[in-house]
Amino acid sequence: MAESAVAQLEECLIVANPAAGTVGEELVRDVVARCARHTRVTVVSTTAPGDATEAARQAVSRPSAEGMRVVVAVGGDGTVLEVVDGLMADGAPADRCALLVVPAGTGNSGYRSHWGTRPWQEAVDHALAGPGRALRRLDLARVRELDALVVLGAGAGLTAEVLHSSRGMPQRGKARLQAGLEHAAASYAPYQGRVTVDGTVVHEGGTVLVNIGGGRHRAWQYLVLPHSVLDDGLLDVCVVGEGTDPVEVPALLRDGRHLDRPGTVHRTGRTVVVERTDGRPLCFEHDGELVPYAGTRITLDVLPGALPVLCDPEPAAAEARR
């Protein structure tokens, strides 16, 4: 995309979540020092759910000068979601207030979707040295039934059950999510479901997982949506049917081979409906958090180009070059 007309940085607001997986005083000091090379810095440390949302809401609501105000989310995918909720509280923000992610959680898939495997220090310098060059307006989604924003992606079935399984795992970080997926897959039974994209039923029957997004990777290492584009105005949808043994899924997801299996469906669209047709509640997550939901159906609508983000224009290509 063409470089934005934003001339200079006005401020970085660093929103750090001490409860996230790898956030500590040393990391926050490093992020502050890195951002301070480029502009003035303010730091907010969250102490309770909702703090990151309120800090971001205040940042976007304050009158801006001629430069760009950047909200730096230091934490995991849940912290990023809270910050985005604040940035979007009064509708899509203008380009003069943008999100920048520093990975410090368990999965950090949001960061990977923006920057690939580039070290965060390089990402921050690249973004803040030329914010107009790094600015993109990325798509979001909204869950109708919950009036909830989705940033990275959403999942039902096995990829949601992972979050149940990983809670008791002794591992930390990405290893815990990997162990949780393998544990869940070993005993998982496909559910009877239906997936509809833009009014057309694309899958009906035994369902291992449904993933919708957004970002190509989940839990950092799983290439769930290999063809997804962050700003094409469409949601990618992948359904793995009962033709695939759940035990095989963790290995298949690592390099996107699940797309080649019988019963797997990949589509793009603007509205996606995921249903459980046996009357039981749908196990559903988005942005790495299980949703307490007793319903059997969820509907996601794309919000095209809703969120200004500083990121690599082609993170997948950048990964391939490293």
Notes on the structure:
With 322 residues, this protein is an alpha+beta fold. A hairpin with a 2-residue loop joins β15 and β16. Strands 5, 6, 7, 8, 9, 12, 13, 14, 15, 16 and 17 form an 11-stranded antiparallel β-sheet that branches. It has 2 domains: 9-136, Probable inorganic polyphosphate/atp-NAD kinase, domain 1 (Rossmann fold, 3-Layer(aba) Sandwich); 148-305, Tumour Suppressor Smad4 (Sandwich). The relative contact order is 0.16. The radius of gyration is 19 Å and the shape is globular. α2 (51-61) runs parallel beside α3, α4 crosses α10 (315-321) and α7 (158-165) crosses α8 (173-187). The chain has helices spanning 25-36, 51-61, 77-87, 109-115, 120-129, 131-134, 158-165, 173-187, 249-254, 315-321; strands at residues 9-16, 41-45, 68-75, 97-103, 135-143, 148-150, 153-157, 191-197, 200-213, 217-218, 222-223, 235-241, 264-269, 271-276, 284-286, 289-290, 297-310.
